């Protein structure tokens, strides 16, 4: 890599590494150390091809996803993760409930399989369509749909308090809608 390429790579890493690390943390189930390893390995792979990459962030994300898929295809024993981290210092009841929600979500995500977690991150955090997720993971759209369905069902089982955030809860919080259909007026 030439000097200009090295400089542009350094700028990319400085500007985008925090956003990429968030994705890696989600992919690794909340394990920050595993996420840092995942991101570092992805950046090492990208550095060798830097001058030939048109869209660097998309390419790095693709490498992250594929590396995570490779990790869960290996027959490694699953490590237990601690989710009892102290939430960031904040004030107010909303901040406390938001911190509690993050801990519940992190714990529930950590108890999903790596494949389930990866599909949910790609579909809902990255907001990718099913076809793109299928292409990235090398599976069919039907597999993505069924995995998403099973993953969400398992999340609801692991953390029933998350169900309060779903569409049914949002409808329950809104006042009942009134039917303002036009009334027929007869002369």
Mean residue pLDDT = 76
- Percent of residues in helices comes to 55-70%
Order of helices and strands: HHHHHHHH
Tally of extended strands? 0
Q: Give the overall silhouette.
A: globular
Q: How would you describe the overall organization of this protein?
A:
By secondary structure, this protein is mainly α. It contains eight helices and no strands. The longest helix has 25 residues, at 3-27. The model is unreliable at 84-90 and 167-185 (pLDDT under 50).
Features:
187 residues, mainly alpha
Write the layout of secondary structure elements.
Blueprint lengths: L2 H25 L4 H16 L8 H18 L18 H19 L3 H12 L4 H8 L3 H18 L8 H7 L14
Tell me briefly what this model is.
This protein has 187 residues and is mostly helical. 66% of the residues lie in helices and 0% in strands.
